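Changelog note: in this version the structure field was regenerated for every chain. One regenerated record is shown below for reference.
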Amino acid sequence: MNSLKEIKKPIEAHLKEFDKIFKASVKSNTSLLDIIMRYILKSKGKQMRPIIVIYSAGLFDNINVSTYRGASLVELLHTATLVHDDVVDDSYERRGRFSINAIWRNKIAVLAGDFLLSRGMLLAVESNDYKMLEVVSRAVKEMSEGELLQIEKARKLDIDEEIYYDIIKRKTASLLASCFAVGAVSANTDATTVEKMYKIGELLGMAFQIKDDLLDFGEGSNIGKPTGIDIKEKKMTLPLIYLLNKSNKHEKRKFINIVKNHSNDKERVDWLITQVKQSGGIDYAAKVMNRFKQEALDLLSTFPENQSRQMLEEIVEFTIERKK
């Protein structure tokens, strides 16, 4: 499996073009906003989403200026959701640095997120990229609904497997799906192809979230030991749902009571993690993750083979094999 650095290498020139548009998009005449945007630019992540957009256009041999705009649109809206998420979650750290709300407080962070959202929309509208805007707006709508559904269900912890899939499809998979679709739109493909690309991203997003669930249990992570953060945050993950489904009423009540009322008790959380592992929950989640991964690869294999397809396949593998 290639490293992310190797995956980026063939499209370095394209990423530079994307970067120019993205940086120009976040410039502001308001000095406070400009300082915040420069801070955001310094804490860039892996750039996985722009990479997917570019390779998705490359799959159809048509990487062009609208591809760079599409990648910028996705990154602007994604960054906006991260800024807002940190406010919602009272999180003071992002990628090893202080979050926007930690430095400038919630009110300014929310307004900075709004600015990023509006810049994304304007970028699309000014260039008549209405189809791209539709794809990404749909993803933001799905993400918001997914978050709210998760919050609603976290109150009672009445999440079964189907509801879990619905939550992660909206909350996580929709944005990755929009990256594949935006790349296809920028390459001027037909609506059926765009939907097919969206589906590949959706399947990858489902696998990506289940991988996150497994990493929280210490499976395949750099640390090698469980963090239990999802349990502390009262999030229902697939391995935990599997345990609950395999338990009798008395056991189920006991497990849910730990998540609901004792999620900060390390001893009880560690015991619950052990129960999840002994129930086969980890193996089950890994099996489901690999099924989603394989479905994404199978759908990808229906397109003609070229370097972009090969790299998108590498990205699918990278997502599942990552250590954090």
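Spot check on this record: The domain at 4-321 is CATH 1.10.600.10 (Farnesyl Diphosphate Synthase). The chain has one domain: 4-321.
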